[in-house]
Specification:
alpha/beta; 2 domains; seven-stranded mixed beta sheet; 25% helix; FAD/NAD(P)-binding domain; binds NADPH dihydro-nicotinamide-adenine-dinucleotide phosphate; five-stranded parallel beta sheet
Length: 323
């Protein structure tokens, strides 16, 4: 077991964590980033990124995250291939976090950038058929449905993007939405409606995922959310794309969360209720949830972390001088 100490400990390696690291490293805080179960975060399971500023042409999510990590390392960040399983916030700064590897990480400040993860419907068959036809990531699993029939459940940007992406593999994609209008951006809706390989089932909720004779997904049981009428849809694959939930399990009963489970911060800042603990990115932002806003709040966390340490160091020097 090794104890790794740093001025700035960052949990999470998406745009928020890596932006905090870039700013933190340049401010001399020699950050450690503990990468977590999904190094690079949600962008590593996206394909085209068209809205991250600075790139005229479409870029790939995984590539963007590799570049961010390389930049963070280039300016002095230490990346740790580990997952935090427990944190001690009660004792105040310095904060200790335990890694799955058995190592401890100790930081004078802690930046929480654990992001969010896909939500599931929680209906029968969904868990049982996970990896056997049911997935939450078209870009990871879409390839397996070449020439087959697939459905996407949801009406936001993720669902529409996944449906569009799946047309690279499948000629028959059905988007299933519980209402009669989509939540996604208009530009994506226009592409969706113009794509002949995609049809939309409006006002339908999935009641269950049912296996076929071979044990993989065979069909979906649907209910009309307006009329209550029941129907079935035969599919080989179904992609659940109904949004994300913040990854806050580690901080349960340690930091206040809002009704949606997002970490609460002082409005307009990344400051949590505990001095020296900052939260940035999707774990604290239920409104914008973009790569660029996550990067922005990561930068804010690093700037506030720097100020926190400067004030603390100043107070310590004053106390020592007074002795
Ligand atoms: P959203 O929260 O935007 O959308 C979730 C969708 O799933 C909604 O249409 C919602 O329906 C539906 N839904 C939620 N719960 C259920 C349920 N239990 N049963 C059936 N349907 C359900 O999540 P997204 O993941 O799409 O997007 C998250 C954020 O990320 C957004 O801010 C989005 O703009 C952003 N994003 C941006 C992208 C881009 O800019 N290229 C790409 C992907 C995401 P209803 O509409 O009825 O509430």
């Amino acid at each position: 077991m090794t104890t790794h100490t740093t001025r700035m400990l960052i949990i999470g390696s998406g745009p928020a964590g890596l932006s905090a690291a870039i700013y933190g490293a340049r401010a001399g805080m020699e950050p450690i980033v503990v990468q977590g179960l999904q190094p690079g975060g949600q962008l590593t399971i996206t394909t085209d990124v068209e809205n991250y500023p600075g790139f005229r042409d479409v870029i790939q999510g995984p590539w963007l995250m590799q570049e961010m990590q390389a930049q963070a390392e280039h300016v002095g960040t230490r990346m740790m291939w580990d997952t935090i399983t427990d944190v001690d916030l009660a004792s105040g700064s310095p904060f200790t976090a335990k890694g799955d590897s058995g190592d401890d990480y100790v930081g004078d400040v802690l930046v929480i950038a654990t992001g969010a993860q896909a939500k599931w419907l929680g209906v029968p068959g969904e868990q049982e058929l996970g990896g056997k036809g049911v997935s939450a990531c078209a870009t990871c699993d879409g390839f397996f449905y070449r020439g087959k029939k697939v459905a996407v459940i949801g009406g936001g940007n993720t669902a529409v993007e996944e449906a569009l992406y799946l047309t690279n593999h499948s000629h028959d994609v059905t988007l299933i939405h519980r209402r009669d209008e989509l939540r996604s951006e208009k530009i994506l809706q226009d592409r969706l409606f113009a794509n002949e390989k995609i049809s939309v089932l409006w006002n339908k909720a999935v009641e269950s995922f049912v296996a076929g004779p071979d044990g993989t997904l065979g069909h979906l049981e649907l209910v009309d959310t307006v009329t209550g009428e029941r129907s079935t849809l035969e599919v080989d694959g179904a992609f659940v794309a109904i949004g994300h939930a913040p990854s806050t399990e580690l901080f349960k009963d340690k930091l206040p969360t809002d009704a949606g489970g997002y970490l609460m911060v002082e409005p307009g800042t990344p400051k949590t209720a505990i001095p020296g603990v900052f939260a940035c990115g999707d774990v604290m932002d239920h409104t914008y949830r973009q790569a660029v806003t996550a990067a922005g709040t990561g930068c804010m966390a690093a700037l506030d972390a720097e100020r926190f340490l400067a004030a603390r160091d100043h107070a310590l020097r004053e106390a020592q001088a007074a002795e």
